[in-house]
Write a structure and sequence with these properties.
Helix content is 37%, strand content 15%. By secondary structure, the chain is an alpha/beta fold. The strands form three sheets. Strands 7-6-8-9-11-10-15 form a seven-stranded mixed β-sheet, with helices on both faces. It has a five-stranded parallel β-sheet with strand order 1-2-3-5-4, sandwiched between helices. It has a five-stranded mixed β-sheet with strand order 12-14-13-16-17, sandwiched between helices. Strand 13, helix 20 and strand 14 form a beta-alpha-beta unit.
Length: 588
């Protein structure tokens, strides 16, 4: 028998329901999400926590004319299901399927593309100001943001501006005390007090001090209460702020009990919630190579400190935190602060390992230049999730770091080809470096079972030859080296092709490059990063500066944003897989 959800193809259908039917719809939505994600995987906990809120928003507001913006977008699955994508929801995060985050090109209900945190208030305020300028003063603009994201500097900047505007803006704080890891900081502690101290909420309120009409906190799973409060707020002019309390993973006991794991649990049993056993991988994730190595180094070197902006578990810095909590800092979603905090520590002789995902370091670009590189402060940047990351798609692919970092003076850039090189460069960096260094490594595992070998110091700026050849040379950086190796093996020109692991994007091994350019007429460069401005561009510059006329082919990510799919699918799409490389090498 069909349920209520089966008859909803858009919010117009939702608005035909009676209010008393909405709790049943919430139950069906949770069951549907659990059913699909149990086998297809995805961001589970966040969306289960906002089922009632999402229903209420689309039920009361005239979306898409009224503009709804989700922060980050982990919690937007219910939104997608109610806005015409229920039938395709099983394709979520798959190649040619719907995206895991709200995407403007996918639906008119996705008013703003998201994936990184703390953008929603700025975007919704911009929309509200535009509506005022166009005379559309009755149009509503809603930003839904979590308690971890609202602690970010950008969110505070937007709150500061919105509070002195006359924008018809409603900010909804979805407070569940957790982002991907538990939320941290003084604001989190304040919000915790507000939940239990009504006097504090009513009088000494930070949000009220910023000129918002504040209401709450209210139970975010109480549909009648949410609908009542949203109905009231629709008639309040100017900036408004609704504080709701929700439970991440609501409706699946295991997800409620272990909110960190069930943020994105992989495949699980839809009834018990038990995660399904996976085949034991003999290889180690690069993040764990980092986490285990820095713990080993920190045990021997008391000057080492670890810093991460809200990715304690994801970066495996949690391993150091468990043993050295006083030397491990989760600063919340605050990439700019993380970088300058590391710079300050470096001025005092500490050795800061600042671990930030490649795609998130983009948010602290000025700090890298102004606060670190300009002052030659020896901060060690560890760029996790570099290269193609897979199903999270365009907002999360770490493919720009080589290009955006390469132009910065005083900065060393290293891309290890395997786990041992990552381990050894971490060791080398903490021995004492004069300049900052960026070490970029991918998501996922390498292919070595024995990588915890005795440390060896790496000579800064020096590459190595991996394979001899007669006519052509492939110069690679990073873990794409493995695909290059296989591609050469697949090629009919195997014996003709040499392979060099250049390792350092900056400084280049100039001495080795002169040897290569004098010996080989054909040169390939390979990187899992954008072609424009990356390692390949550095080699082209070297050739031009030294008047070399060799034929040079740059292999890398083309000049467009890459969609979501598995890493292998995306490598095939961008011709970075071993088979495509083998065909390319056949053309020598």
């Amino acid at each position: 028998m069909k349920g209520l959800l089966d008859h909803i193809e858009s919010p117009k259908d939702l608005r035909k329901l009676k209010e008393v039917q909405l709790p049943q719809l919430a139950k069906e939505l949770r069951a549907f999400i659990i059913e699909v994600l149990a086998t297809k995987e995805g961001h589970l906990g966040a969306s289960l926590g906002v089922v009632e809120l999402t229903i209420a928003l689309h039920y009361l507001f005239n979306t898409p004319k009224d503009l709804l913006v989700w922060d980050v977008g982990h919690q937007a699955y219910v939104h997608k299901i109610l806005t015409g994508r229920r039938a395709n929801f099983h394709t979520n995060r798959q190649l040619n399927g719907i995206a895991g985050f709200p995407t403007r090109t996918e639906s008119e209900f996705d008013t703003f593309g998201v994936g990184h945190s703390s953008t929603s208030i700025s975007a919704a305020l911009g929309m509200a100001i535009a509506s005022n300028l166009k005379g559309e003063t009755k149009r509503h603009h809603i930003a839904v943001i979590g308690d971890a994201s609202i602690a970010s500097g950008m969110a505070f900047e937007a709150l500061n501006h919105a509070g002195v505007s006359n924008a018809n803006l409603l900010i909804i704080l979805n407070d569940n005390a957790i982002g991907i890891d538990p939320a941290v900081g003084a604001l989190k502690e304040y919000l915790t007090k507000v939940k239990t101290d009504r006097k504090l909420a009513a009088q000494n309120n930070i949000i009220k001090a910023l000129n918002f009409d504040y209401s709450g906190p209210i139970n975010g799973h109480n549909l009648p209460k949410i609908i009542s409060e949203l109905t009231r707020l629709k008639n309040v002019k100017g900036p408004k702020f609704l504080h709701i309390i929700t439970t991440k993973g609501k409706g699946l006991q295991r997800a409620e009990e272990d909110q960190v794991t069930y943020h994105a649990p992989g495949k699980f049993d839809k009834i018990s919630g038990e995660r399904l056993a996976q085949l034991k991988n003999p290889y180690t994730k690069y993040q764990d190579v980092f986490g285990k190595t820095i713990l080993e180094l920190a045990t021997k070197n008391s000057k080492i400190v670890g810093i991460t902006p809200a990715m304690l578990t994801g970066s495996s810095l949690k391993l150091m935190f468990e043993k050295f909590p006083e030397r491990t800092f989760d600063v919340g979603i605050a990439e700019q602060h993380a970088v300058t905090l590391a710079a300050g520590m470096a001025t005092q002789g500490l050795i800061p390992f600042c671990n930030i995902y490649s795609t998130f370091l983009q948010r602290a670009y000025d700090q890298i230049i102004h606060d670190v590189a300009l002052q030659k402060l020896p901060v060690i940047f560890c760029l996790d999730r570099a290269g193609l990351v897979g199903e999270d798609g365009a907002t999360h692919h770490g493919v720009f770091d080589l290009a955006y970092l390469r132009c910065i003076p005083n900065l060393t850039i290293f891309a290890p080809s395997n786990e041992i090189e990552l381990r050894n460069i971490l060791y080398t960096a903490q021995l004492g470096i004069k300049n900052p260094i960026a070490i970029r490594y991918p998501r996922g595992t390498g292919n070595l079972t024995h990588w915890q070998l005795p440390f060896k110091r790496i000579k800064i700026g020096k590459g190595i030859q991996l394979k001899e050849g007669k006519e052509a040379a492939v110069l690679s950086v990073g873990t794409i080296s493995e695909n290059i190796k296989k591609g050469i093996e697949y090629s009919k020109n195997n014996e003709k092709i040499a392979h060099y692991n250049m390792r350092f994007i900056k400084p280049l091994d100039v001495e080795l490059l002169h040897t290569i350019f004098k010996k080989y007429t054909t040169i390939f460069t390979a990187e899992e990063g954008v072609k424009k401005g990356g390692f390949g561009s550095a080699i082209l510059e070297f050739a031009t500066e030294n008047n070399y006329k060799n034929k040079i082919t740059v292999i890398g990510i083309p000049d467009n944003f890459i969609t979501h799919g598995t890493v292998l699918e995306l490598q095939e799409m961008t011709c970075l897989d071993a088979n495509s490389l083998g065909k390319l090498f056949n053309k020598i």
